[in-house]
Amino acid sequence: MDELARVGDVGAIVTETITSLSRLGLLNSAEVTFTKEVVEALRAFQQSRGLTATGKLTRDIYLALEEARWRLGDRNLSFIPGALIRGDDIATLQNRLNEMGFSSGRVDGIYGALTEGAVLEFQKSVGLPADGVCGPATFTALIRLTGTVRGGLASSLRDTYLIHQRGPALAGKIIAIDASFGGNLLGAEAFGLNEAQITFDVAKRLEGRLSALGVTVFMTRGKDNNPSEMDRINFANKVNCDLLISLHLDNSSSTNAHGIASYYYGNATHEIHSVVGERFALLAQREICARTDLLNCRAHGKSWEILRLTKAPSVRIDLGYLTNEGDAQRLARSSFRQSLAEALVVAVQRLYLAAEEDALTGTLRVEDLKRAGLRK
Question: pTM of the full predicted structure?
C-alpha cells in the first residue's frame, strides 16, 4: 500500500499526523517534519489499535488516526446510510450500550443500523425523544446511567449463544473461505508456487471437505480473479455466513521467521474482542500444530478491516512463511496442504461441539465426523 509520507517529508498530512499523535500522548514534539520519532509513535499507535506495527503512514492508518481523535460528546452521532460515521466516540457509545443491555452488535466504532436501533431503545427507556440521534440529551443520560445499569457483554453472549443454538451438525452451516491473492510477499515463491496458488489450493481442499459434511461453502474469489478486500467483506456479509476463514501466507526480511499464526477481531484500546473468533483461532492454531510441525506463533487480536467489518466471526490464518525455506518446502507439498485442510475442518467442527462432546486436540479425523453422524 502506498505511503502518504516518509522520513524527511513535510506538509499538511505530516502536520496533521504529528498533531494527532501528540493529542494521543504518543509524541511530545513540536516538529513539522516526518522524523524517526514520528515513525516510532506511529508504531505505538498501530500496536495499540490491533494493527500491524509498521510505522508507515498509509491511507488506512491516516483514517485510523482520524477515528482516534473523537471522544464521546464531541459531536452528534447519527446513522447516515452510504456515509457511515466512524470514530472512537462511537466505539465508546457501543460499549456503554452493550453493557446496559442495549445490543448495538459488535463494537466496531461505526454508527450503523444496529447502533441506531440500540440508541432508539435506550432513548425510549429513559423517556427521551426516540430519534436515533445521539446528541447532548442522550450523552447526559448515558453518563448518568453508566456504571449503575449493566446487562453484560450482550454481543459476546449473543454470539456464543448462537453458536450453541446452531447445534453440532455441520449440515446447514454457511462458511465463507477467503484465499489471499498474494502480492505482499516480497516476490517470494516456493518451488514455482506463490501465495495465491497455495492459499487457493488449501481453500479448495477445505471447500470440498466441508461440502461433503453438508456445509454450504462460498469462496470470496476464483482462481484467477482478485476482488478488493471491501468487495470480499461485502460478499461474506451478503451470503450471511456463520464464519469467515481468511487464508494467507506471511513474509519477513529475516529468513529465520517461520510458523503459523491466527488472528481474530480484537482491539486493546476498547478492551473488546470476538469471543467466537478467538475460540476458532485457538482451535485452528492447535489442530494445525498438532498435525504438522509448523511452529506455533499463537493467536492474536487484531482490528484489520476483514476482521472488523465482517458481520460473522472472522479469523485470518497465516499458514507459514514463504520467505523461510523450511515452511516453503512444507507448503509446496500436496500432502502438507491436505493436512492443513483437514485440520481446519476439524477445528470448524470443534467450534460447534459442546464441551462434553469435544475431543482432545489432534485426535478427531474427518472420517470420525462422518461416522459419528455429525453431518446430519
Answer: 0.82
Distance CA 304, CA 278 (A): 14
Report the C-alpha gap between 314 and 34 in whole angstroms: 35
Task: Confirm if 108 and 237 have CB atoms less than 8 A apart.
Answer: no
Which uninterrupted H or E stretch holds 376? none
d(CA 250, CA 323): 8
**Inter-residue contact 273 to 303 (CB < 8 Å):** no
pLDDT at position 375 is 44
24 neighbors 42 (Cβ within 8 angstroms): no
Q: pLDDT by residue (tens digit) across 336-359?
A: 999 999 999 999 999 988 654 555
Query: At 161, is the pLDDT very low, low, confident or very high (cuts 50, 70, 90)?
Result: low
Kindly report the CATH class assigned to 88-152. Answer: mainly alpha
pLDDT at residue 168 tops 90: no
pLDDT beyond 80 at 100:
yes
Grid cell at residue 346: 476439524
- Tell me how crowded residue 238 is: count the other CB atoms within 10 A of its CB: 11
The reply to whether 88-152 shares the fold of 3-68 is: yes
372, three cell numbers? 459419528
> 3-68 sits in which CATH class?
mainly alpha
Residue 214, sorted as left (phi over 0), alpha (psi -120 to 50) or beta, turns out to be left
Cell 494493527 belongs to 51
Would you say domain 158-371 falls under CATH 3.90.1150.10? Answer: no
Domain range list for the chain: 3-68, 88-152, 158-371
CB 324 within 8 A of CB 257: yes
110: helix, strand or coil:
strand
Cα-Cα-Cα-Cα torsion 284, 54, 50, 1, nearest 10 degrees, comes to: -80
How far from the centroid of its chain's Cα atoms is residue 87's Cα? 17
